Structure formats: C-alpha cells, structure tokens
UniProtKB/TrEMBL annotation:
<protein>
    <recommendedName>
        <fullName>Phosphoadenosine phosphosulphate reductase domain-containing protein</fullName>
    </recommendedName>
</protein>
Length: 339
C-alpha cells in the first residue's frame, strides 16, 4: 500500500526484498490531490525498486466526495479516505480474489503511531466482505515476530478486538506490552534517512516545505515554525489539504501554501452553507473547545467541542493574536491513507 509518502516507499522495498517482485503488487489509490512532487517521488521509487506501480482510482477527488456528501468527516471517519482509498482497495482485492489471489496488505505505519494500526486491521476485517475472515494486514515498520512482520491479531494478542462489535479504543502502551510479551523485534528503520542517503532519492518536498518557505525571511509564519523545529508537513498526502489534519497541520499549510489554505477555506464555506441550508447543521474540518459553565467531579470547568472554521482559525489565530482565548483541540493525526 504505497501512499507516495516516505514510510510506504520504504515498505515497498522491504516487501519486494523479502517476498520477491513476482509476489508483490505496489498499489496506489490516487486521490488526484497529491502534491506534484509526490508523483515525481513515486516514479523514482518505482524505478529504483524496478517494479511497476498499480494504480486504482475512480477519477474523483476528495472535493467531489465532499460536495456529494456535504460532509468532511472527522477524526474517526473521512468520506474521501473511505471512497477513494479503502473502497478502491476493496474492489481491487475482490478482483484479485476472482483471479485466485488472496493478498496480504502491508502498511507503513511505524512504531510511534502503532495505535493506529488496529483500526486499519479492524476495518479491513469487517469491510472486505467478499470472504469470511476479511484480509490480513501486516506492519513491518512496527515490528517483526519470528522474522515476519507483525499482523493485526498480534498487535493486541490477548484481546480479540478484531471480532468485537465496535472498534475499541487502543493506546500505544497496550500494543507495546503485547509485542514485548511475544518477543517481537521492534523496527528501528529510519525510512526518510535511508531513502535520501542510501537510495539517493529526494523525499517529497512536503517534508521540508517549511524549511524551503523560511528561506524567504519575510515569511514570518514559516520562520516561526522553523524556530519551533517544524521543517515541513509530518504526512505528505493530499497536498497538505487533508481534512484529518489538525490546527498544527493547517498552520503549516498557511505558512507554506497560503493559496491552498484559502482554497480549502472557500470549499469549507461553500459546503457549510449548503449543509446549513439543508438541515441547519454546521460541519467544519477543525473544532475548538469552549467552556460549558458546568463543573466536573474534580471541580474543573467542563468544556465542549464546537465547529471551528478555517476562516475563523485564520482570522483569530493565524492572522490574529495567537494567544487569543481559542483553545485548540489538538489533532496532529492525518488519515489512514497517509501510510
Ligand atoms: S489524505 Fe486526508 S484529504 Fe486525502 S483522502 Fe486521506 S483523509 Fe482525505
């Protein structure tokens, strides 16, 4: 599963080296929203490994999906990811099964983000209904057990989360303990370093977009971010306009590609207007916490999450007083498709 980012690029080589080109399909489900440099990267990775990339897409972009559904999704679900990534993958799996091939899917989620892997394994078990047990997922960048990449079941080996009615909440700690008790070998690879230094391939420019923008000393936002150690986007997908990005993600987008930020702001406004006209509901990509006036059992004021538009965030925080009374609902996690 190649998303055109660094982790999944590393993964392609790992799988080809371990199982052979003849047994490997490098799949990309293209959203048509990737940054142009990601396509350059994708091609160079394919040439380096010496294998063609299989592309599956239905030609639509996330914008097409948002306009159809009048909805951006949220942290748990993003309709663009479901329609353009997962569904395309499910359809392709179905095609392979009809050809007598039962694939194993490999994802480039790393050890630090391990808590995200069980949800993927769960989704592929429950949504690929073309055969009884779903499909097996493996995560080489997390760990290996007995020389094979850890699979969904092994992530939490003593809790049958794959068969629960609802995906339970999982923290890294539980996965780390489960892996340790199974004698797993934790992956210590550094994909970005290996790709640049050993493969000689320049990473997608999104990873260093802040550094690049900060060369212009008049770009105060980029320079502020760089001073805080932010060199670029943490995930190089959908050209930085991912609906699963949080405030931090959109502050990077504003600093490096203000035009893309404003385009997304406009799209959000149009979809919101249509949604409000339809059923009075307001959906935004970001959210913020506001006090409710009620106290919890510890005597602390309770807060609730409310919609917070990109326009409000820009005016109040990015162009306004960053320490205004907006309390950020932090969410630095992008979507399942980023791996
Ligand atoms: S990277 Fe973000 S915007 Fe792109 S398809 Fe995934 S969830 Fe949607």
């Amino acid at each position: 599963m190649f998303s055109t980012g660094a982790g999944s690029a590393w993964l392609t080589k790992y799988v080809v080296d371990k199982y052979g080109k003849e047994n490997t399909i490098i799949l990309i489900t293209d959203t048509k929203w990737e940054d142009e440099d990601n396509y350059r990267f994708m091609k160079e990775v394919a040439d380096y490994i010496g294998i063609e990339i299989t592309e599956k897409s239905d030609g639509r972009t996330p914008e097409d999906i948002f306009r159809k559904d009048l909805y951006f999704g949220n942290f748990g679900t993003a309709p663009c990811s479901k329609e353009l990534k997962m569904k395309q993958t499910f359809l392709y799996i179905q095609e392979l099964i009809e050809q007598g091939i039962l694939p194993i899917l490999y994802f480039g989620i790393d050890y630090k983000e391990a808590r995200r892997a069980p949800r993927l394994a769960y989704n592929y078990k429950h949504n690929v209904d073309v055969f009884e047990d779903g499909v097996e997922l493996r995560f080489p960048l997390i760990a290996e057990i007995d020389g094979e990449p850890v699979n969904g079941k092994q992530l939490i080996h003593n809790r049958d989360f794959l068969n629960s009615d609802k995906m339970p909440k999982v923290y890294n700690k539980e996965i780390y303990e489960s892996l340790e008790s199974q004698g797993a070998t934790i992956c210590t690879a550094n994909p970005k370093h290996e790709i640049e230094n050993n493969w000689g391939i320049k990473l997608p420019r999104m990873y260093s977009a802040v550094e690049e923008a900060a060369k212009d000393k008049s770009n105060m936002k980029a320079n502020e971010l760089l001073e805080k150690g932010v060199k670029g986007f943490s995930h190089a997908n959908c050209g930085g306009i991912c609906v699963k990005g949080g405030m931090g993600h959109y502050s990077v987008l504003y600093a490096v590609w203000e035009d893309r930020y404003l385009k997304m702001e406009k799209l959000e406004r149009e979809i919101n207007d249509a949604q409000i006209a339809k059923n009075g509901r307001r959906y935004t990509i970001l959210s913020k916490l506001i006090p409710t006036g009620e106290l919890d059992e510890k005597g602390k004021e309770k807060k609730k999450k409310v919609p917070y538009s990109l326009e409000e965030y820009r005016l109040e925080v990015l162009e306004g007083d960053i320490n205004s009374n907006v309390e950020v609902e932090e969410n630095t996690i992008a979507c399942e498709c980023v791996f």
